Amino acid sequence: MNVRRPHISAVALAAVTALGIGTLSACSSDGAAAGNTDKFDVVASFYPMAYLAEQIGGEHVHVTSLTQPGQEPHDLEISAKQTAQLEESDAALYLKGLQPTVDEAIGQSPVKTKIDAATLTSLEEHGTEAGGHEDEHGEDEHSEDGHAEDEHGHEHTHEGGEDPHIWLDPVKYAEVAEGVGKAFEKADPDHAGDYRKNTAALVGTLTDLDKKFETGLADRKTDVFITTHAAFGYLAERYGLTEEAISGLDPESEPSGARVKELQQMAKADGVTTVFYETLVSDRTAKTLAGDAGLETDVLDPLEGITDASRGDDYVQVMEANLKALQTALGAK
Q1: DSSP assignments along 276-333, one per residue
Q2: DSSP state letters, 178-241
Q3: Is there a contact between 135 and 149 (Cβ–Cβ < 8 Å)?
């Protein structure tokens, strides 16, 4: 991987400094800055990456997240302090395509080990609809890893290109974990054995979680669920569901009146009971749609960060809470 030396103009530096220097180190055991410890210092872009680094690195790593709890990661702007912190770290773990300012900062950073989670599994395009069992030509189509792609008969709009929300599919997340583990082994060979062991344990945990979803959603009344933004496309495909998003991959985008009307009609036709929203983005649109259509609302957490409002303390707990919410909404037994 080519490493470009950092080049930040005075104007850009002033701009990022004005945005504040609230660096998060809640994922680490102490508040020391990355690069200033005697451990393998990893800067992670946001919670799902920090969780992988902590679980795989164990006692050998010091993890610092660029995204603070409660901060919408899509909106992150890198501060000057974070840029300096990144340059002093041993490794950067990020998901290219989710946070443009992070992609740019890591691309310009001299950090030796750069791990892009998007290269460790396959990405797909998702629009406001994802999942189902048939493609748009009405033919049953499956990808190489065995899950269904696209829903029959409905028009697709790929608004954001490749969907970065791979961590919400436990199988894809496990693939990423394996790649991160190998990268840690290579970058810090003195602790390779422990990284290998920790990776295997994490993959086992994620495999168990996958089985819980598969079993827990097997017997259900409907396949369709409605969310505020299209974060759950990979999860929908994995378990044969269809996600209908009010907006696309961008959580801040506003739906058209036609889209809202379409969702209301779809909810009635497909037996949808619930409109899901998330804790880091306004629930106004979801509650308006639900109220107009006589539906319930509930949280389906895209796990972009853990806060006091999260239904669990870590990735696995919140995903299990998501499973319960989906079971209720889909009428699963």
Answers
A1: EE-TTS--HHHHHHHHHHT-EEEE----S---TTSSSSSHHHHHHHHHHHHHHHHT--
A2: HHHHHHHHHH-GGGHHHHHHHHHHHHHHHHHHHHHHHHHTSS-S-SEEEESSS--HHHHHHTT-
A3: yes
Give the list of residues 6+ apart from residue 190 with CB closer than 8 angstroms, or none: none
Q: For residue 171, which of 120, 220, 224 has the smallest C-alpha distance?
A: 120
With H, G, I as helix, E, B as strand and everything else as coil, classify residue 24. Answer: strand
Q: Would the pTM of this model clear 0.90, i.e. be above it?
A: no
Q: Give 10-residue mean pLDDT values along the chain (333 residues).
A: 35 37 36 63 98 98 94 89 93 96 95 97 85 42 36 35 93 98 98 98 98 97 90 96 80 70 87 88 83 90 93 97 97 91
Token representation of residue 264:
């209301």
Nearest residue to 162 via CA among 198, 210, 127, 112 = 127
- Edge-to-edge order in the sheet of strand 242-245: 129-131, 242-245, 224-227, 274-277, 296-299
Report helix angle 10-18 to 80-87, nearest 10: 110
Q: In sequence order, which ranges of 35-114 are alpha helices (DSSP H)?
A: 47-57, 80-87, 100-108
Tokens linked to 166: 């791979």
Q: Of the candidates 213, 207, 197, 123, which has an alpha carbon nearest to the alpha carbon of residue 163? A: 123
Contact 35, 90 (CB under 8 A): yes
C-beta of residue 310 within 8 angstroms of C-beta of residue 318: yes
The CA distances from residue 136 to 149, 157, 168, 331, in Å, are: 9, 12, 24, 26
- Give the angle 2-65-246 at the CA atoms, nearest 5°: 95
What is d(CA 287, CA 203) in angstroms, rounded to the nearest whole number? 37
